[in-house]
Amino acid sequence: SHGSWLHVVQDSWFETGHAAKRYGVGEICVIDGRQILGESSFFCALGESVNGPGGYFGATLDGLADCLASSRNTSAPFELVWENFSGARERVGASLAASAVDVLREFGVDVTLR
User: Fold this and answer.
1) Is the separation of the CB atoms in 34 and 87 below 8 Å?
2) DSSP tally for the chain: helices H, then strands E
3) What pLDDT is stored for residue 75 in this prediction?
4) pLDDT score recorded for residue 76
5) Residue 11: how many other CB atoms lie within 10 Å
6) Is-contact 50 29, C-beta < 8 A?
7) Residuewise pLDDT in 10s, the chain (114 residues)
8) Measured between alpha carbons, how far apart are the two ends of the chain, in Å?
9) What is the DSSP letter of 114?
10) Distances 72 to 20, 94, 104 between C-alpha atoms, Å
11) Quick check: 65 and 58 in contact, CB under 8 A?
12) Contact present, 67 and 29 (Cβ < 8 Å)
């Protein structure tokens, strides 16, 4: 169901005039790895952490990179705290988890894994 929800959020986000960027104002964003069951739920959790309920921040690693690139000049860098990372890494796969962290860090996000 997360894949369907991610599609709805993505469509809604752009239909309401939002761009692929960070609108959140908080310096620290938190995602709970216990809620991440797979790739789609990771992107749902990240979108809501960064941009609030129903928020979007990419649906793929390329989409994440687009959102981060678009956010560079419009918002301050932020910290992402990924709680319960090890369990989420098992469910999304070590490769996706490592790649997501790499992309975030490449664009200046301070990622803390707990």
Assistant:
1) yes
2) 5, 3
3) 67
4) 66
5) 11
6) yes
7) 788 888 899 999 999 999 999 987 778 999 999 999 999 999 999 999 999 998 999 999 999 999 999 988 766 678 999 999 999 999 999 999 999 999 999 999 999 999
8) 26
9) -
10) 11, 27, 12
11) yes
12) no
Contact 9, 50 (CB under 8 A): no
Name every residue whose Cβ is closer than 8 Å to that of residue 111 and which is 6 or more positions away in sequence.
79, 80, 82, 101, 104, 105
Greatest alpha-carbon pair distance for the chain in Å reads 36
Closest CA to 12 of 56, 66, 63, 58: 56
Structure tokens at 109: 């996000």
pLDDT at 3: 84
Note whether 41 and 2 are within 8 A (CB). Answer: yes
Q: Is 36 helix (H, G, I), strand (E, B) or coil?
A: coil
For 80, phi then psi, to 5°, come to: -110, 120
| Token code pair at residue 86 | 């090890």
Residue with tokens 């989409």: 63
